[in-house]
Design goal:
With about 150 residues, this protein is of the alpha+beta class. It has 4 helices and 5 strands. The protein has 2 domains: about 60 residues, no CATH class; about 60 residues, no CATH class. Strands 3-5-4 form a 3-stranded antiparallel β-sheet. Strands 1-2 form a two-stranded antiparallel sheet. A hairpin with a 2-residue loop joins strand 4 and strand 5. The radius of gyration is 16 Å and the shape is globular.
Amino acid sequence: MSDLNEVGERDGWRCWLCDAPVDPSASVNADQGPSVDSYATARAKKGERAVERLAHRACNTQRGKTAPVVPWAPDLFVVDPAPIVAVVERLARKGGREVVARCPDAQDAQRAADWLLDRLSRYAPDVSFAVEAQPGGGQFMLVLRAERP
């Protein structure tokens, strides 16, 4: 297992589940304290280390009871947003690309693309993603692509 500080620095001290800041000085026993969540990816080979992500202790505990949901930021103007967890799992497993949302203009699309890439850097740090805003039908489609190493 990696050092908590290493994982925290890599993830910018933000929880991969709720996207809120994690206080590095909080007790690891406190609900809002830092914890490391580890998971093995579908592509992991036997003997490989699991991927580790930073989470609040309470978020990490709650995730053990239910499937995680990574919500889109409420301040983004996106239409028909795809469920982030399902899309990421599909793309990480099979590769390719998928439309994940639509935005009314280029500025909204760029904000959503930047937010999504930042969010995915914590949710799936072992997968490299790219987001394109493609015009079409008077709107902009956000296309998420998993890039193969």
